[in-house]
């Protein structure tokens, strides 16, 4: 007699499951395909080689005067926020930590990419390194700002003592 209640429970469970899983023939609506990503804009960096601290410029008709663009070098920790001048040109320095590779410029809705920029002299960002650099190009107030990974604008501070210039800046916590 023990087999009959087990059979009844199994049949009841099977009935409930089979009616709950039935498909009443609902229409399957396909999702719209996602928009294909915009192809990157080809940019040309001049010069296409340089060491840490070297001045680089990119001129292109996609740049708008007084707009700011994010410039990223492979290997560098931070992106540079660069303002466009009247000649549809952005001008910036090769940042510490940069290694050879394409330079990426983030525009409003598109990205621009240069061919490989060759960094001729690397720098170790972990160790204390002293290098002699020719900083003959004038550094303007706009060149002294870096946006850190928290989104805060950080300016370089300078202290001149005799023939030595000390550059420093603060970072966000974390």
Which terms would index this structure?
174 residues; 33% strand; single chain; 3-stranded antiparallel beta sheet; 13 strands; mainly beta; elongated; 6-stranded mixed beta sheet
The Rg value, from CA coordinates, equals: 29 Å
Contiguous low-pLDDT stretches (5 residues minimum) are none
Shape: elongated
Cα separation of the termini:
71 Å
Biggest pleated sheet: 6 strands, mixed
Mean pLDDT: 79
Number of strands: 13
Q: Percent helix among the residues? A: 10-25%
The total of helices stands at: 1
Helix/strand/pairing category? mainly beta
Q: Strand-and-helix sequence, N→C? A: HEEEEEEEEEEEEE
Tell me the strand percentage band. Answer: 25-35%
Report on the architecture of this protein.
This protein is mostly beta strands and 174 residues long. Helix content is 10%, strand content 33%. It contains one helix and 13 strands, in the order H-E-E-E-E-E-E-E-E-E-E-E-E-E. It has one helix at residues 3-20, and strands spanning 41-42, 45-46, 49-50, 55-59, 68-73, 80-83, 89-93, 101-106, 111-119, 145-147, 153-155, 157-161, 164-168. Strands 1, 3, 5, 6, 8 and 9 form a six-stranded mixed β-sheet that branches. Strands 2-4-7 form a three-stranded antiparallel β-sheet, with no helix packed on it. A two-stranded antiparallel sheet has the order 10-11. A hairpin with a 5-residue loop joins strand 10 and strand 11. The mean pLDDT is 79.
